[in-house]
Amino acid sequence: MAKFVMLTTLTDEGRKTLKDNPERLREVNKEVESMGAKVLAQYALLGPYDFVNILEAPSNEAISRIAISLGARGTVQTLTLAAIEVDELIRNLK
Length: 94
Hints:
By secondary structure, the chain is of the alpha+beta class.
């Protein structure tokens, strides 16, 4: 499965939701997994992004569907990047 880095920024509504219900983070992770991706790691950030998520998904199309679904809720904005493991990159360059 392909790996992706998803950077997320909370909207005003997202910040309110998280403040009122911090466990919502875990609920969203379960929803992401029910959409076909696996959350490998998740970190809260200081700076222009609020969270970084390392995800595994079957395809670009699958992760696009997830990003659009999350963004359509109005609580987050996402930036999703395809990630290639360094060992895999080296193998492909040979």
